[in-house]
Write a structure and sequence with these properties.
Ubiquitin-like (UB roll), Rossmann fold, 2 domains, 6 helices, rod-shaped
Length: 280
């Protein structure tokens, strides 16, 4: 006698009754909300740019650059392009770097976010110490106290202090915007000498000539020269102290018109030449 066993088929549980389904749906909803909030919510799209510190660089150019930098591409697949201007996606350091690369006139750029829709940029523009003409490209540039070329100058209409270099210890490639034209230490020496003589004695330097690895010559607007020993701050400070004493105590303003040169390179003295018999 045989037995027939009947297996009762358990009804399949609907998807909506499964716990994992609701967890997944909740996760999807929350994720979509966060993505929308961070990337596409109109209230957090960059709309305003505030610019401070610029005088030479156009505010309009800076504004356009910052708006472009705040536009982030999210997808570019076939004909599908997705982008966002969300303030959350703006990388302040990266944008500041792009500004510095695009505008050599700017030395420092600091970008901050002002929620919900504003970017604020504070810039410090480079302070020129003179004009340097590249002997290779024949182009002339304003340079700052770090020796960086940051603005092209018309060679036929140069004004202010001219910086020349006749020694060859700086073997850079062709000078261009944003590149070093002279060694930073040379530029710092020039900046310090310029400021000291102008502020203390109202003496304007017409041009500097980096003559050798050890020598820096300055020519005043009155036509007389000062010969400096190139070096660090201590070396330059000692020489400025010497010329300061000379101009205060020994070389009256009326005597300066007859000067030919002051040589500050000897360690313990200075050589003053105020007649045509002196030789360089």
């Amino acid at each position: 006698m045989g037995f027939i066993i009947h297996h009762r088929i358990k009804p399949k549980k609907p998807l909506y009754k499964k716990l994992w389904f609701w967890f997944f749906l909740l996760f999807l909803t929350l994720s979509s909300t966060v993505v929308y909030f961070l990337f596409f919510c109109p209230n957090f799209q960059v709309k305003n740019i505030e610019i401070f510190g610029n005088t030479e660089v156009s505010s309009e150019d800076l504004y356009d650059t910052l708006m472009q930098c705040s536009h982030t591409g999210l997808m570019n697949l076939w004909n599908i392009k997705l982008a966002s201007d969300s303030i959350f996606l703006v990388d302040a350091n990266d944008v500041a770097s792009q500004v510095l690369n695009k505008f050599p006139e700017i030395e420092i750029a600091l970008l901050t976010k002002k929620f919900p829709q504003t970017l604020i940029i504070n810039v410090k523009e480079r302070e020129p110490i003179g004009t340097f003409c590249d002997p290779v490209s024949q182009k002339c540039f304003l340079i700052d106290k770090k020796g960086i070329a940051f603005q092209v100058q018309d060679k036929s209409a140069l004004s202010g202090t001219i910086v020349r270099q006749t020694e060859l210890d700086f073997t850079a490639s062709v000078v261009d915007l944003g590149k070093a034209a002279i060694l930073e230490q040379n530029a710092e020496n020039i900046y310090k000498i310029q400021n000291f003589l102008k502020e203390q004695f109202d003496i304007v330097i017409k041009d500097f000539n980096i003559r050798s690895a050890m020598r820096l010559d300055a020519r005043t607007s009155q036509g007389w020269h000062v010969y400096f020993l190139r070096g660090d701050d201590d070396v330059i400070n000692l020489q400025l102290e010497k010329i300061g004493i000379l101009l205060e105590r020994e070389i009256a303003p009326e005597r300066r018109a007859n000067l030919r040169y002051i040589d500050l390179r000897p360690k313990d003295r200075a050589i003053i030449c105020d007649n045509q018999a002196c030789a360089d």
